[in-house]
């Protein structure tokens, strides 16, 4: 069986109308064992290509573009670019997949969405991987992200776009030139004049800035409501997820297993064999 993904979409709703959520589906479409992988704040479904290919022998792997990103639709009301809307969209996606239970891997924002979904009564999430994501988001990391998130830069060529992606994504840690080119190509699109733009709705940054907390953002009641087995993958240099937060996560709620990735900040890309092995080992244990 080919490991090439299938491109699909599902229609979701907000009070202002409908929008389409695009997703990639890997592996046997009849496999009842489903893994949903959700990307970070300004990234896209393609971030999980390596992980999805590696796990498609055991799972039907589903990787959505969240609203306003990648190939998904933009929302009429930009203030709906928030976790409750993303959770609603994912409930609709799960209904489309027609499964009762699933495993979840979420990077950063995708982890917050997974955590919120896993905390609900009768949640379909039976295993949860939080990739540099947890119930405390530091103010320092929010300020760093706000310095670039939701802006609409244009680049004269792909090389300039890659320089930008390398700069804002430096905490991802060491990657090869080919990997950086991939990480760039999946989040930009070419304009008619040959220049490039970030492939997201520039308005996604509006609620992020409007709701900027004065201190760290804390979501402990949500985390403590999670009951499924949980793994936290932390970049050892992360400015978003602190070691103190991870220690508390290991002691309360689902009592997460915590593994650090050396030489990486926010967030591990899950592209490399060692990181894929961490996730695969937990999910299949």
Summarize the structure.
The chain is of the alpha/beta class and 285 residues long. It has 10 helices and 13 strands. The chain is globular and about 50 Å long.
Structural class: alpha/beta
Described by its quaternary structure, the protein is single chain
| H and E string | EEEHEHEHEEHEHHEEHEHEHEH
User: Which architecture would the CATH scheme give at its second level?
Assistant: 3-Layer(aba) Sandwich
**Mean pLDDT figure:** 96
At CATH level 3, the topology is: Rossmann fold
Instruction: Please give the number of β-strands.
Output: 13
In CATH terms, the superfamily is Alpha/Beta hydrolase fold, catalytic domain
CA-based shape: globular
Strand content: 15-25%
Task: Write the topology of this structure.
Elements: E1 6-14, E2 17-26, E3 34-38, H1 49-55, E4 60-64, H2 83-97, E5 102-107, H3 109-118, E6 125-131, E7 136-137, H4 139-146, E8 154-155, H5 158-168, H6 177-185, E9 188-190, E10 196-198, H7 205-210, E11 217-218, H8 220-224, E12 230-235, H9 243-251, E13 257-261, H10 273-284
Parallel strand pairs: 3-4, 3-5, 5-6, 6-12, 12-13
Antiparallel strand pairs: 1-2, 2-4, 7-11, 8-10, 9-10
Helix pairs in contact: 2-3, 5-6
């Amino acid at each position: 069986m080919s490991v090439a993904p299938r491109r699909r979409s599902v229609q979701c709703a907000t009070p202002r109308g409908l929008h389409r959520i695009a997703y990639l589906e890997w592996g046997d479409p009849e496999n009842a064992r489903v893994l949903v992988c959700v990307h970070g704040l300004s990234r896209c479904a393609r971030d999980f290509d390596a992980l999805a290919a590696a796990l498609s022998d055991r799972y039907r792997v589903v990787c959505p573009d969240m609203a306003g990103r990648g190939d998904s639709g933009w929302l009429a009301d930009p203030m709906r670019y928030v976790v409750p809307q993303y959770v609603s969209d994912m409930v609709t996606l799960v209904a489309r997949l027609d499964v009762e239970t699933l495993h979840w891997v979420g990077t950063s924002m995708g982890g917050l969405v997974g955590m919120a979904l896993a905390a609900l009564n009768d949640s379909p999430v039976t295993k949860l991987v939080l990739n540099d994501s947890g119930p405390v988001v530091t103010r320092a990391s929010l300020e760093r992200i706000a310095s670039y998130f939701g802006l609409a830069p244009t680049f004269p060529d792909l090389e300039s776009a890659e320089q930008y992606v390398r700069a804002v994504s430096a905490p991802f840690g060491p990657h090869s030139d080919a990997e950086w080119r991939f990480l760039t190509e999946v989040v930009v699109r070419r304009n008619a004049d040959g220049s490039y733009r970030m492939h997201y709705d520039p308005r996604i940054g509006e609620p992020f800035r409007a709701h900027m907390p004065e201190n760290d953002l804390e979501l402990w009641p949500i985390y403590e409501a999670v009951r499924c087995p949980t793994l936290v993958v932390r970049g050892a240099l992360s400015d978003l997820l602190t070691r103190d937060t991870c220690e508390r996560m290991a002691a309360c709620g689902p009592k997460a297993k915590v593994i650090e990735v050396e030489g990486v900040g926010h967030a591990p890309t899950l592209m490399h064999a060692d990181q894929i092995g961490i996730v695969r080992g937990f999910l299949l244990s």
